[in-house]
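Q: Structure for this?
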Amino acid sequence: MKLHLKIWRQRDAQSNGALVDYDLDGIDQHMSFLEMMDTLNGQLILNGDMPVEFDHDCREGICGSCGMMVNGQAHGPVAGLTVCQLHMREFKDGATIYVEPFRAAAFPLKRDLKIDRSAFDRIIQAGGFISASTGSAIEANNLPITHDMAESAFDSAACIGCGACVATCKNSSAALFTSAKVSHLVKLPQGKLEAEKRVIQMVGQMDVEGFGHCSNTEACEVKCPQGISVLNIAMMNWEFNKSSLLG
Amino acid sequence: MPFLKSTLSRKNLMALTGLFLCFFLVIHLLGNLQLLLAADKASVSFNNYSTLLSGNIFIKIIAYILYFSIIAHAVDALVITVKNRKTAAKYAYDERKHASKWYSRNMGILGTVLLIFLVIHFKDFWYVYKFGALPLDKNGNKNLYVIVVNAFHSWWYVCIYVVSMFALGFHLLHGFKSAVRTLGLYHPRYARYVEIFGVVYSYTLTIGFSFIPVYVYITQYIK
């Protein structure tokens, strides 16, 4: 495959960035998108140029490290995938591909396609945990949890924190990310004990970090590689309103 | 007090005022349906109805809640939009539109169309009824019917009205569902029913409000 790439290059947060053109030949259609980027970087290094920096880790779609806008869409044009699971067969030979970093006021750019998503970490630190005594875990059957509720909590817990929900939201809202963790914990007996404090603190931290309002456009659910449901947002709102009024 | 200052509390105000306006629109449409009666009956019925509404203390309270809801909904939308503009990302190449419905992304534009329509609507009917010198009908009631029907006899007025009602329809199509979700209805089964109800409600109100001026306009040539 031959490709014409337009990739966002930017030295650091203070510099101005721009789309830079690259022509690439000999790309196998079975390569992943990141392998294609590796091929480009190999050529750039051989030519004495700086490689394009981007985040990645497991390359199996489960760690949430990778993430970029491919042709104007978070993780590219295929729904339910991280960009490491996007393959070049999804593009036509000779295609022009635009590659930009995930953007949001709360995700400052570090270099090229690499962004700082530590705002997510601080939201989790604000309340996305349970306070449990150390020691051996108790016998699992001592905690009555229905199978459906366990599955539902696990669906919410499947969020990998990639940031695609924020990148694709017109307001850069982190409602889906925050709500997934709020819902995951409030559905389980271990999480209910701190539910009131948790939702207030996590939503408060979300606002402090500078994420926008949720407009319920549902774009986040569409572009989430884990298919996290927007009903988690409704659950977070319910918990927030309950805790604000009654807590 | 977190209920009053977070992103979620601002959305709560949008949801509560929006849902009240949704409720009011049903009452408004039911009143407007009287315009579909035969002219002599419609005139008496519509003017009686207008007089009844303007003299009832309960309706006056509802009216003040209505004025508050319209202003709070618009001002809150403005505050939210300004804040969202600061946080929103800009891409050199942007195809994010594929992930959502156009009307869900353009509630501000649809809302602005509705606000302009409301100014015209209040000026032509509400202001005239409250502060203008209206003729009286045979029962001694202010003859609002003749003002409304005369307005609906102009093709351009009907066009403005119908276009605005379609803007209202798309605004409701997203707004109703969004408001309920903002308030926290998360059960998958009930959320689905709310979604279906929201679609039926939006279509009914759009078709209902649009049909009345078109009907009045056409029937002036049939008589």
